[in-house]
Amino acid sequence: MNPFDSRQLLTLVTLARTRSFTEAAKELHLTQSAVSHSVKALEKETGQTLFERSGRYIKPTPVGEYLIREAAEILARMEGIRSRLSDVDGWGRGRLRVGASPACCHLLLPEVLREFKQSFPGCSILVRSDREALNLERLRGGEVDLVLSVALEREPVEVAACDWFTDRLEIVLPVFHPLAARRQLKIIDLEGETLHLYGNESRTDKVVLDALRSQGVRAAEILEVGSIDAVKEMVKIGQGVAFMARWAVQKELDEGSLVMRPVNGHTIERLWKIYWARQHQLTLFEETFVGLCLEALEGSVLAGQPG
């Protein structure tokens, strides 16, 4: 049996999406007769009717729907191969666009970016440092290739992801806070305290607030300062407490300017993921970057985190 003609498969998929010979012809820069001839050729080759026709109305048959799904996957793979060949042809030249939170950009990505640039010195890198929701919108709009984010509560169907790591949130206090003398704290100990959040629709804020509400705890005041560095500085001078991951505050813990205490009886964890567009096959650059992100966990401050 002869292999299918990729041009005929593209015509089939386009016609199925537009449901119109006229629109398919316009999109493919063909005549309506050419579109019709291409479909008839496929029907003759398969021995199956692929579309039901009623005047200007068309609808794929069950066999047609099967072939359309298979054709779409074949075309996507062919596009991926073409993209990868382009990478090889211009070895090391290209671009990589990444979206991540400010803390992630500042504390987790530098080593990954250094390793990546050693592998692809000619590849330009754009890192968009912003809140999770905005970075996901950029991904869906094709403005970035990858997003590093705390896992979404509801993931859009048009994005795919792999798990990156899991971290644990603990209570960060000024060294002179009365609670700093304890080895462990309970959520109820935060009743009446000033609590710092990150703001900007942060997923971390929701995780923290859900934990407090589950224990019936109310903070005296909630402050949103929009920056992890600002949160740390406010806590240092005694203006409240915060929930943070150890990797985000390790420097301050080492120098003794802040104290971190685990939450007894209530583990607060976050799953981090790497997101990309579901219909997009990862390029060599993107696959390498994802691999470096996963490898960077070993021997880092994240190595002792759960998950």
List keywords for this structure.
3 domains, alpha/beta, nine-stranded mixed β-sheet, single chain, two-stranded antiparallel ribbon, Arc Repressor Mutant, subunit A, 11 strands, 307 residues, D-Maltodextrin-Binding Protein, domain 2
Short description:
The model has no long low-confidence stretch (mean pLDDT 86).
3D architecture notes:
- 43% of the residues lie in helices and 23% in strands.
- It has 307 residues and is an alpha/beta fold.
- It folds into 3 domains: 6-89, Winged helix-like DNA-binding domain superfamily/Winged helix DNA-binding domain (Arc Repressor Mutant, subunit A); 94-165 and 270-304, Periplasmic binding protein-like II (D-Maltodextrin-Binding Protein, domain 2, 3-Layer(aba) Sandwich), CATH 3.40.190; 167-269, D-Maltodextrin-Binding Protein, domain 2 (3-Layer(aba) Sandwich).
- Strands 3, 4, 5, 6, 7, 8, 9, 10 and 11 form a 9-stranded mixed sheet that branches.
- The longest helix is centred in the first third of the chain and has 28 residues, at 62-89.
- The chain is elongated.
- Residues 4-61 form the HTH lysR-type domain.
- Keywords: DNA-binding, Transcription, Transcription regulation.
- Belongs to the LysR transcriptional regulatory family.
